[in-house]
Design a protein that fits this description.
By secondary structure, the protein is an alpha+beta fold. It is built from two helices and three strands. A three-stranded antiparallel β-sheet has the order 1-3-2.
C-alpha cells in the first residue's frame, strides 16, 4: 500500500477545508487529520495528506492557491 504524505498544516478549519476542496476539485484524493484539542481549538493542527505519487502535483496546487 502506498504511503500518504503530509502536504499542508494549518490551525484554521476554514483554510484546511478550502485547500481540501481545491485538491478534490483537481482529482487529488485527500485525507484530513484533525489534531486540534476539542476544548481549546488554538491547540493542535489540522494536517492534509495525499498519496505519495501525487505529492508534487498537490504541493504545486496548494502553492498556486495560497499565492492568489
Amino acid at each position: 500500500m502506498e504511503p500518504w504524505i503530509k502536504i499542508f498544516t494549518t490551525r484554521s478549519i476554514a483554510e484546511a477545508s478550502i485547500v481540501q476542496g481545491m485538491l478534490e476539485e483537481n482529482q487529488v484524493p485527500v485525507r484530513q487529520l484533525n489534531k486540534q484539542d476539542s476544548s481549546y481549538l488554538n491547540f493542535g493542527d489540522i494536517e492534509l495528506y495525499v498519496p505519495g505519487h501525487l505529492k508534487d502535483t498537490a504541493v504545486q496546487l496548494v502553492q498556486q492557491t495560497l499565492l492568489n
